[in-house]
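B., you asked whether I could sanity-check this one before it goes into the benchmark set. Here's the sequence:
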Amino acid sequence: MKRNVLAVVAASAIALGGFVVAQAQPGPGGAGPCMGGAGHGHGHAFGLQGLTTKLNLTPDQQTKVQPILDTAKPQIAAIHQEAMQKMQTVMSSTLSQIRPLLNTDQQKKLDAIQKAHQDMMNASKELHDAMQE
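And here's what the prediction gave me:
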């Protein structure tokens, strides 16, 4: 049972990291977090490039749509950031409750998983920042 819980927590942390990486990358339309430019491949159609392609927008429509997207982008980014912080709190609480139930080897594995996840998040942020320059 403990091993299953640990596996679920670890998989969630890794999946979350991958989700964050994918969502943080701007697409060819210049879309930022959760805006889903055409390069995402996640089915999001909120980036101007994605809307232009999927809806066959005219240049006039593109001009009208862009300010709407520009207004939504920071709101969505703020919601995403808040959700991520809340999820981190829950994950930390969950792991702090699970940790005492683990033996020494399992705790070491958990530590390694957490370190790998943090390293992946740091690398993702560095990549994102480098792409913004």
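One thing to flag: Residues 8 and 14 are 10 Å apart (CA to CA). Otherwise nothing jumped out at me.
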